[in-house]
Specification:
Chain lengths: 249, 457, 457, 249
C-alpha cells in the first residue's frame, strides 16, 4: 500500500504551533499554608482542599484565607484560562475546589460572604440542551454570584414569575434549537409589559447575535466565560442597551 | 447484558463503504449496505414554523419537495430523508405522524414518476430529564413512545433516537475531565438505559413492520467532541473526547443487542466500531455536515459508511436554491464518487485516501480509522462480561493506540490529559458492581437529582 | 489575433489536479499549480450591508475572519479568498480598495500567527452595457479600470473579471437556440472585447506587481448551462449548452494571450480546455458550489483543478457556524482528499473516479472530461487563423465527440437540437470577415443597440 | 484502466424517462394557406412567415389570419411548452415569427390590434443581469401586451417616473443580486406614497418569495412564463394582494 509522502500538504497541525511555551502559574505565597491553598485551587484538587483550608485557618483568619488563598488562586486560574494555558475543565474543577474551601471559611466566619448579586439562569421551554447553562452556572458561582438555576425546558411563565419574585440583576437563557429559542422573545415581551428591564443574556448553539438583538432586553452571549463579566456590568448599573453596546458590537 | 462476543468481519480490511454484512431493505426500493452508498438528507424547519401543525407540515412538504426535485435534477439514484424531530413533533405525537405521512406521499409520487428510490427515518426526540424525573415512567417517555408509533404508522421506514441515559452524569464529568464519571455515565448508565428503551422501540417497530434503526451517543460523546472543537479550542482535551468516543461504541452497541438492524443514526461517530462488530449498515456524517457542526475527520469518517448524511440544515434560500436542495446535491456527488469507486473496483484506494486525509489530523479520526476502530471493536467483544468491562476496555484500547503511534502528534497538555485518564482507568475496580457502588457514592453527592433507580439499580 | 498554436501537454493523461505547467506564486507563501490544491472561498455580503462603505467593509472583515478561523480550526494549510465584487464595490473604487486592504491585513495576521498560506483575488464587476453605450469609452469601463487599480494597490494578489463583450448578441441567441449568433457573440465579439480589456488589465497588474488571473465566460456559456439546468428543465437544450461551452474556451483563452497567468476564474467551466493549451493553473468549482448554482458535473470538474471554489455564498448563520466557515470547511476536506491522493501517488485513480462519476451524466461533463477537453483544445490550437475559426472548430469538435460516443445517451429532442446546430456550423462561411458581415447584417436588424464599433469593427 | 461496471448505481438519467413519448402539435387547419401560417408559427420560422402570411392574406381577411393562424398557432406553442414538449427557445422563436406575421396583418388592417394593456419592465439599479427581463418582455409581447422596456441598471427614480407617466397595469422588476434587489422595496414605497397600487411583480435568481412578499405591492415571479398570466390577472382587475394570494401561496 502506498504511503503519504508529506502530510504537511494535506493538513497543518496549527494546534502544535507554539505548544510547549507554557508558562504556568505565576502566583505564589510566602506563607506555606496559603501556598498549599493556592496550589489546591490551581490544581482543582477537591480531595485535599478541606484539609489545607482547615490547616490555614488554624493560623489565619477566614478573610485572609479567602482573599489571599482561595480568591487569589481562582483569579490566577481565570488568567491561565483566558490565555489558553488552562482548558475549561481546569477552570471548573478549580472553581469546585474554591467553592468548597469558601464554604469552610464561611462556616468559620459564621456568615456567608455577601454575594455580588443574584442571577437567574434557565434553558428554554422545549429544550433539554442544558450543558451551556450548567457551565454558566458554575462560572457565575465561582465569581461570587448567587445563581438561581431554573433548570431546562422551563415554561415562559416560570421564568417571568421567577424574575418578578427574585428581582435578579440579570437573567440568562440558553437554547440550542432555533425552534425553541423563540421563547426568549416571549419572555422579553412579558417582562417589559410588567415593567422589568432586567438584562436578558441569551446564548446557545443555534442562537445568533442577529436573533437576540432583534428583541428588547436581549444581549447575546457567545461564550459561557462572558457571563461573569456581564453580571458584573449589570451589578455596576449597566442597562441592557449599554450591555448590548459593549458586548454585541 | 452484553451479547456480542465476536466480530462481524475477519479484519478491518474487509470493511468498506456501501457494503454491510447485513444489508437492510425498506421504503421504496431502498437497500442500505447492499453495495451502494446513498445520501441521507436531514432538513430542519425555520423558526416560527413550529407554531402550529399546519405550518410545520407545510414547511416539511416544501423541504421534502425541494430535496426530491434536486435528486431528479442531477440524477441521484436514491435518498433517505431523516425527519429529525424538533421538540414539537415529538411532544405532539400526531404532528410527527402527519409529517411522516406527508413525506411518504411525496416520496411515493417521485418513485412512481421517476423511479427515485427512497426511505424515511424518523428520529424521535428523547426529552426525558434524568435529573428531574423518573425516566422510566414519565410523560416524556410515554409521549416519545407514542410518537414512535404515530411515526411508524404514518410512514417512517426506520426508527431512531438519540437517547440521553446517563447525561446528568456525563454533563458534569465531561467538563471536569473526569474519565471515571464519564465511563459511568456512558458505559454503564447509558447502556442500561438503552437496553430499557430499545426493547420498547424494537417492539413498536415490529408491531408496525418497520425497521428499528439505531441510536447515537450524541448526548455524551458528541458533547465531548463538540466541545473539544477545533485546534484552537480549549474546552475539552481532544484526547479525552477520543476516549469518550471509544466508550460510546460499547454503549451504542446495545441498540443492536436489543434488535435494532441499522442503518445506525448519522451522528454516531462511533458507528464504524459498531459496524465492525455487528455487520449492520451505518449512517455517517463528516465534511458535508459542516452545516451542522465542524469536525476534524471530514473525509475519514466516510470510510465505511452506508448512508452519508448532512446531519441537519435549516431551510433557507441560497443563491443556488434552498439549503436542503444544496446539501442534497453535495451529498449526492459525494456518494457518486464512492459508488464510482465501487463500480470500478477502486473502493479500497478511495477509502485509503479518506483515511490518510485525517488519520493524523486529530485523535478522533485516529481512533476511528478502520484499523483502529476494528481493534477497539475487538476489545469490546473480548470483554463482554459487563457493560462496564467492555466500555472500559474500549477506552483503554483507544488510549493505547493513541500512545502507540508516533505519527500521531499531541501537545504536551493533550498527552498529559490522556496519560492521566489512562492512569485513572487502570486504577478502576475489576467488577461492575464495585464500580457502580463507588460511582454511586461519589456522584450522588455531587449531582443533584441523580438517582440509581432511573437505571434499574 | 489568436496566439496559441500548440498544446501545453503532450496528452490528456498528463493533466492532473494540483499541478500546472506554469505555477504562479503570490500572496503569503501561496503557490497555485505547484503540486497542491487549495480552496478558494468566495463570501458574499448580506443584503443591506452594501448601504455604506463602513457597513460593507465591516461585513467583509467578519466574513474573512470566520473563514480564516475555520482554516485554523481544522488544519487547512492555505486558502484563497475571492472578493467577487458586488456592484457597489466596483462602482465606488475606494470601497473595493479598502476591502482588499482589510482582507490583506487579516490574512497577514493569520500568516504571522499560524503560518496560514493565503492569497486574494479581486474580481471587478464588468457593468458595461454593450447595447446601450460605447463600451470602450464609458463611465463603466473607466470606473472598472479604476477599481482594478485600487484593488491591486489595496492588497489584491490576483485580478479577474467576468467580461461581458458580445452578451447583447448571446442573450438574444441562446434563448433562441441560434448557434450562429452564439458563435458570433462569444467566439468573435467576446474574444475581441477580451483582447481589448485584457491588455489594459495586464498593464495594471504589471504596474502594481500583482498577478493578472483570468476571465470566465460566465456571461454566455454559464447562461446557457444555467438555463439548460437539471434533467427536467426545458429552457435550453443541454447539447446546445455544451457547444456554447466549447466556443467559450476559444474565447476565454484570449486573457492568457494578452498576458494573464492564472489562476483562471472559478466559474469558467471551460478552463480545463484552457489548461490543456496554456499550462496555466485553473480555479474550478463543482459540487461544493451548489450553494451558488447546481450543475451536472460536480465531481468531474475537479479533475484538473488547481484551486477549488464554492463560487459564492451569502453570509448567514447555520447550525455549524456561518455559511462562509461551513463552505471553507467542505472545500478544505475536498482538497485534502485530492492532496492525499497526490501524496500517495494515487491522483490518477482519484481523477478517474471524478471523471466516471459524471462523464455520462450529461453532455457538459462529457465534453469537459480531460480526454475530450484535450481534443477540443487541439481543435482550437489547430485552427488558429482567427478567433472565429478556432471557436467554430471547438464547437464542431465538441459536437463530433458527443455524437461519436455511444455511451452518451441523449433524448431525441436533445440529439436533434445538436444535429441541427452541427448542420448550421457546417454551413457557415470559411473566412472570419464573411462571417462577421453575415452576422452584422442579421443582428443589427434584430438587436436594438448592437453596434460593431464596440468591437473595433 | 478499470471500467465502470454499472452506471445505474452512480447516477440515474431521469431525463430519459418517458422520452420518445412526444405527441407533437395537435392543431391543424383545413385551409392550406392557414395551415402554412400555423406551421410557420409552430416551427418559429421567421424566414418564411412573411411569405405565408401574405399568401394567406390574399384570400382571407387579416383578422382571420390573426385569429385562426397566428394566435391559434401561438396558443398551441404555449400548450406544447407548458407540457414540456417544447423548450423555451421553441416558444420564443415562435413568438418572433408570430409577431412578424402580426405586423404584416396590422399593416393590412390599417391599424394596430388593441393591446391588452401596458406593462413596464426593468432590471434593478446596479444590476446588469437582464436576461430574465428579456424573456419576460418576449413572452408578454407574444401575449398581446404593450411592453415598455426600461432596460437594465435602472434608477429607482426612473421606474417611479415611468409608472406615473404610463400608468401600466403591472410593473415588473428583475434582480439577480441580493445587494441590488433592495431597490424594489424603495420603488414600492415611493409608488405607494404617491398613491399608486400597481402590482409590482419581482423576480430573478437571488430574489425570493420571502423577500418580495415582505413589502407592499410585491408579487413574486418565479418563472418568466408566469408573466403573461399575471398581466392577465392585473387587466382583469386583481389587485396586488389578490395576485399575491393566487401566485405566492
Ligand atoms: C450534544 C447535543 C445534543 C445532546 C444534548 C446533551 C446536553 N448535555 O445538553 C442531546 C443528545 C440530548 C441532544 C438532543 C437533541 N438535539 Co441536539 N445537539 C447537540 C450538539 C451536537 C452539541 C450541543 C452541545 O452540547 N454543545 C456544547 C455546549 C457547551 O454548547 P452550548 O450549549 O452552545 O453553550 C456554549 C455557548 O453557546 C455559550 N452559551 C450557552 N448558553 C449561554 C448563556 C449565556 C448567558 C452565555 C453568556 C453563554 C451561553 O456558552 C457555551 C460555551 O462556553 C448540537 C450541535 C450544535 N451545532 O450545536 C446539537 C443540536 C443543537 N441538536 C439538535 C437537535 C435537533 C436535537 C434533538 C431535537 C434531536 C432529536 N430529534 O432527538 C434533541 C432535542 C431534544 C430536546 N427537546 O431538547 C439540533 C438543533 C437544530 C435546530 N432545529 O435548531 C443541533 C443543532 C444538531 C443538529 N441536528 O444539527 N442534542
Ligand atoms: C450569467 C450570470 C452573469 C452574467 C449575466 C449575463 C446576462 N445575460 O444577464 C454576467 C457575467 C454579466 C454576470 C455578472 C455578474 N454577476 Co452574475 N450570474 C450569472 C448566473 C450564473 C446566471 C444568471 C442568469 O442569466 N440566469 C438565467 C436567467 C434567465 O434567469 P433569471 O434572470 O433568474 O430569470 C428567471 C427567473 O428568475 C424568472 N424571472 C426573472 N425576472 C423575472 C421577472 C418576472 C416579472 C417574472 C414573472 C419572472 C422573472 O424568470 C426566469 C426564468 O424563466 C447567476 C447564478 C445564479 N445563481 O443566479 C450569477 C449571479 C447572479 N451573479 C452574481 C454576481 C456577483 C455577479 C457580478 C457582481 C460578478 C462580478 N464581480 O463580476 C456581476 C454583476 C455585475 C452587475 N453590476 O450586474 C451572483 C450574485 C450574488 C449576490 N450577491 O447576490 C450570482 C448569484 C453568482 C454567484 N456568484 O453566486 N453574471
Amino acid at each position: 500500500m502506498a504511503t503519504v509522502a508529506n502530510y504537511a500538504n494535506i493538513f497543518t497541525r496549527y494546534d502544535l504551533i507554539g505548544a510547549g511555551a507554557a508558562k504556568g502559574a505565576m502566583v505564589s505565597s510566602k506563607d506555606t499554608a496559603l501556598q498549599k491553598v493556592l496550589e489546591c485551587v490551581l490544581e482543582g484538587d477537591s480531595d485535599n482542599i478541606a484539609a489545607v483550608v482547615n490547616e490555614a485557618l488554624a493560623t489565619k483568619d477566614p478573610m485572609t484565607v479567602i482573599n489571599d488563598g482561595l480568591i487569589r488562586g481562582m483569579n490566577e486560574v481565570s488568567r491561565l484560562w483566558d490565555e489558553g494555558e488552562y482548558y475549561l475543565p481546569q477552570a471548573i474543577v478549580a472553581s469546585d475546589a474554591m467553592l468548597q474551601g469558601l464554604d469552610i471559611c464561611e462556616k468559620k466566619l459564621g456568615q456567608s460572604l455577601e454575594k455580588k448579586g443574584t442571577v437567574i439562569t434557565h434553558t428554554a421551554e422545549g429544550d433539554i440542551h442544558d450543558l451551556g447553562q450548567k457551565i454558566v452556572n458554575a462560572l457565575l458561582r465561582a465569581n461570587g454570584y448567587n445563581v438561581i438555576d431554573l433548570g431546562k425546558d422551563v415554561p415562559v411563565d416560570d421564568v417571568v414569575a421567577a424574575v418578578k419574585k427574585n428581582k435578579p440583576v440579570m437573567v440568562t437563557g440558553t437554547a440550542l434549537m432555533t425552534t425553541t429559542m423563540t421563547a426568549f422573545e416571549r419572555i422579553s415581551n412579558r417582562l417589559l409589559k410588567d415593567g422589568f428591564e432586567t438584562p436578558f443574556v441569551c446564548g446557545g448553539g443555534a442562537v445568533s447575535l442577529e436573533y437576540v438583538t432583534g428583541y428588547k432586553l436581549g444581549v447575546y452571549g457567545k461564550d459561557a466565560s462572558q457571563a461573569p463579566g456581564m453580571a458584573n456590568d449589570a451589578v455596576n448599573g449597566l442597562g441592557w442597551t449599554d450591555m448590548r453596546e459593549k458586548w454585541n458590537s | 447484558m452484553p451479547k456480542y462476543d465476536k466480530m462481524a468481519y475477519a479484519s478491518a480490511g474487509e470493511m468498506i463503504f456501501g457494503t454491510a454484512k447485513n444489508p437492510v431493505k425498506y421504503g421504496r426500493d431502498f437497500t442500505v449496505g447492499g453495495g451502494q452508498v446513498f445520501p441521507e438528507l436531514v432538513p430542519h424547519p425555520r423558526p416560527g414554523t413550529e407554531a402550529t401543525k399546519k405550518t410545520l407540515v407545510k414547511e416539511y412538504e416544501k423541504m421534502v419537495t425541494d430535496v426530491l426535485d434536486r435528486c431528479v435534477a442531477i440524477g441521484i439514484p436514491g435518498i433517505q430523508i431523516e425527519l429529525e424531530h424538533v421538540y414539537q413533533m415529538t411532544k405532539n405525537p400526531d404532528w410527527g405522524g402527519e409529517i411522516a405521512s406527508a413525506t411518504k406521499h411525496l416520496q411515493e409520487e417521485y418513485h412512481r414518476k421517476y423511479g427515485l428510490k427512497s426511505g424515511i427515518r424518523a428520529t424521535i426526540a428523547d426529552y426525558r430529564k434524568p435529573d428531574e424525573e423518573d425516566i422510566r415512567n414519565s410523560v416524556a417517555i410515554e409521549t416519545s413512545l407514542k410518537t414512535f408509533e404515530t411515526s411508524a404508522a404514518g410512514g417512517a421506514d426506520v426508527l431512531s433516537i438519540e437517547s440521553v441515559g446517563g447525561k446528568e452524569i456525563s454533563d458534569y464529568t465531561i467538563v471536569r475531565q473526569d474519565i471515571r464519571g464519564t465511563l459511568f455515565g456512558i458505559g454503564v448508565l447509558g447502556s442500561r438505559d438503552m437496553e430499557y428503551m430499545w426493547k420498547k422501540i424494537v417492539d413498536i417497530a415490529n408491531k408496525y413492520g418497520v425497521t428499528p434503526g439505531g441510536d447515537t451517543n450524541c448526548a455524551q460523546a458528541n458533547v465531548a467532541m463538540f466541545m473539544a472543537g477545533g485546534y484552537q479550542d480549549r474546552s475539552v482535551p481532544h484526547t479525552f473526547a477520543a476516549l469518550t468516543r471509544a466508550i460510546a461504541a460499547a454503549r451504542s452497541l446495545v441498540a443492536y443487542e436489543q434488535g435494532a438492524k441499522g442503518p445506525s443514526k448519522d451522528c454516531g461517530y462511533e458507528d464504524v466500531i459498531i459496524k465492525s462488530i455487528t455487520g449492520n449498515p451505518i449512517a455517517m456524517e463528516g465534511k458535508t455536515c459542516a452545516c451542522a457542526h465542524s469536525d476534524l475527520l471530514g473525509n475519514l469518517v466516510a470510510a465505511c459508511c452506508d448512508l452519508w448524511s448532512n446531519e441537519a440544515v435549516e431551510y433557507h434560500d441560497m443563491f443556488g436554491g434552498t439549503t436542503v436542495a444544496v446539501f442534497a446535491e453535495i451529498l449526492g456527488y459525494d456518494v457518486a464518487l464512492m459508488n464510482t469507486a465501487i463500480q470500478m473496483g477502486h473502493e479500497k484506494v478511495l477509502q485509503e485516501l479518506m483515511v490518510q486525509s485525517d488519520k493524523y489530523r486529530d485523535t478522533h479520526g485516529f481512533i476511528l480509522c478502520p484499523e483502529n476502530a476494528y481493534e477497539i471493536g475487538k476489545a469490546i467483544v473480548g470483554n463482554n462480561t459487563s457493560y462496564y468491562a467492555r466500555a472500559k476496555a474500549a477506552a483503554i484500547k483507544a488510549g493505547q493506540l493513541m500512545l502507540g503511534d508516533s505519527k500521531l502528534q499531541m501537545s504536551a497538555f493533550e498527552k498529559e490529559s490522556l496519560e492521566s485518564a489512562m492512569r485513572t482507568l487502570d486504577s478502576l475496580p475489576e467488577k461492575e458492581e464495585d464500580f457502580i457502588s463507588e460511582c454511586a457514592d461519589i456522584y450522588k453527592k455531587l449531582i443533584p437529582g441523580f438517582t440509581l433507580a432511573n437505571y434499574g439499580l
